[in-house]
Each structure stands twice: as structure tokens, then as C-alpha cells.
Amino acid sequence: MRLDDAPESDNVTDSRGMGGKLAIGGGGGLLLLILGLVFGVDLGGVRPAASTSGPPDKETLVFTKKVLGTTEEVWTAEFKKMGKKYREPKLDLFTERVKTGCGTAPSAVGPFYCPPDETVYIDPTFFNELEQKLGGSKADFSKAYVIAHEVGHHVQKLLGFSARAHDNDASVRLELQADYLAGVWAHHGQEKFKFIEPGDVEAAIKSANAIGDDRLQKRSGSFVHPEQFTHGTSRQRVYFFKRGLKTGDASMATLQKFFEEPMGRNGELRDF
């Protein structure tokens, strides 16, 4: 991924190295379960990576600032087309655990977006787990896809879609829409910054495929239970990311389809 021409966001906070001393209060279990499912990865049985004694690496910070900067450029322009103003989210890099507007969360929940404080939280060690334990990729564009997916949840909040997450069916629709929005970001980001290099799209697709509900259920030794899906199948996560990448269409008419198309008994939303 080439980010030479990408702007650096001013909305990134680096809290790495300050974790590990925050207590999880009462009721935290349910809250953390919700947050842990935001990106579709249940890391409850994965031991969080140990923190290092050295200072946080600057390369990760600069990369994150640049990726978030491209999302700001893309969504500011797309919201302008809708006659709306885009309010930029924050992003916090952390290690071990972090206090958020949604409560205190350990890194084991994976990347997540907290609507009350409009912040994306990411422990960069997640990407090692994504590649080594889940079969995804930790290539730069795959990391950018993860960030763009979480920013997609912020876009959903601003457009009023987040309020529809009241059951598993609605959750699947929201998550597939967030994958689609990540594709829309990639489409317009490529037009403006030419940041996609050979192999990049394949890396993002590899990660999207690795975190489908059906694949995660199989990896856990379970049968596939569509009624328990929260994020969609591997096929559909890939399909809607690629759909957004191809069309770049962020119109409300298209985004509404995620809540209008029927859901099949196999847990898949009808393709469109």
C-alpha cells in the first residue's frame, strides 16, 4: 500500500504502553461481549499479546494517521454529495486494555468502534492474531481495511443506520454494510491517492474471508448455525467489500438496500 501522498489525520491518539492498570467494573462482561463482536472476531480464548518494554513504534502511528486521513478525505467528500457535513471520528491505538465511552475493554475484543465517544479502538497486536490464528493477512492494505470497516460503523451512526442493530439479523446487515463502506472508501481513496498496489486487494479479501461467521464457527469445531450469525458469511463479507470497491456508490438509496433485501434461511442477505 502506497501512502506517500496521503494526509496525516490529527485525530489519532497513541495510548500504547499505558494499559494494564484499569479495572473492569460491574456489568463489563456483557459490554465487552458486544464490543468483541463488532469486528466479527471472538478472541475470548486468545491470550492477549504481552506488552513490550520498548516505546511504541512510530511507523504504526504514522501509518494509522495516514489511513485515517484518507478516510476523512473520502467521507467528507461523500457526505458533501449528500448535502451533509462529515464529523470525523477519533482513533486510539492501545495495548492490553483501554477505558472508553463504552466501558473498559481488553485487547482480546479485537478492533471496535464505540458510538458514545465516536472513537475507533485498535490494539495493533490484533493483526498478528488475524494472520497467525485466524488465517487472515497483516499486510498494510488488510490493516487499512480493518480501520475502514470500523470507520464504516461511524458513518452508519452519522447516517442513522446504527440504531437498527436490535437483533442478529440487523447486526449482520450492519456489518455487511460496513464491509461495503470499506470498499467504497477503497474505491474513492484509490481515485484520489492511488494507494493500491499489486496484492493489496487480495490481502483485504483474505482477511474478510477469514472472519466470516461460518468460517469462525467451523474453526471453533462447531457446526454452522445461521441463526447465530452476527456479521455474515465469508462469501458475503468478501462480496460486499468488492461491491463497494467496484461501484464506490455511497448513496442513501443503495445503503438502504442492506435493510430492504430479504435474508435467506442460510443467513445470507440477497446479493444486489
Automatic annotation (TrEMBL):
The chain crosses the membrane at residues 20-41. The keyword Nucleotidyltransferase does not apply. One of its GO terms (biological process) is proteolysis. GO terms for cellular component: membrane. It holds the Pfam family Zn_peptidase. Its main location: membrane. Signal peptide: none annotated. Coiled coil: none annotated. It is found in: Membrane. InterPro entries: Uncharacterised_pept_Zn_put (IPR007343). GO terms for molecular function: metallopeptidase activity. It is a single-pass membrane protein. The keyword Translocase does not apply. Keywords: Hydrolase, Membrane, Metalloprotease, Protease, Transmembrane, Transmembrane helix. This is YpfJ protein, zinc metalloprotease superfamily.
